[in-house]
Amino acid sequence: MAHLEVVPQSGRWLVRYEGDPASISEHDTQDDAIADARNHAREFPEPIIRVHGLNGGVHTMIVDPDHDGPPSRSGLGEAMG
């Protein structure tokens, strides 16, 4: 089964399935690509994302499908509660 991957290419960061030349999305930063890959993984239950670095290293992220992401925040400086 092909997993999602985040890969650098031509100064951009791509989110795609391993082995598929077509990207799901393109981003300016690795962090943005990882965030989008996580959202995609939760929407289409994909448990694994492989993140490639500029140095050729790869690390694997496990995605919790039940996690909705960070809690929404109120405006800065507003009292909570």
What does this structure look like?
With 81 residues, this protein is α+β, with helices and mostly antiparallel strands. The protein has a domain at 20-68. A hairpin with a 2-residue loop joins β1 (4-9) and β2. The protein has 1 helix and 5 strands. It is globular, with a radius of gyration of 15 Å. The chain has a 5-stranded mixed beta sheet with strand order 3-2-1-4-5, with helices on one face. It starts with a strand and ends in a 19-residue tail after the last strand.
Radius of gyration: 15 Å
Sheet bearing the most strands, described?
A: 5 strands, mixed
Q: Structural class of the helices, strands and pairings?
A: alpha+beta
Shape: globular
Number of strands: 5
Helix content: 10-25%
Percent range for β-strand residues: 25-35%
Lateral strand order in the biggest sheet: 3-2-1-4-5
Number of helices: 1
What's the N-to-C terminus distance?
A: 45 Å
Name the average pLDDT: 84
Helices and strands, with pairings:
Layout: E1 4-9, E2 12-17, E3 25-27, H1 30-43, E4 48-52, E5 58-62
Parallel strand pairs: 1-4
Antiparallel strand pairs: 1-2, 2-3, 4-5
In short:
With 81 residues, the protein is α+β, with helices and mostly antiparallel strands.
What tags apply to this protein structure?
about 80 residues, alpha+beta, 1 helix, 5 strands, globular
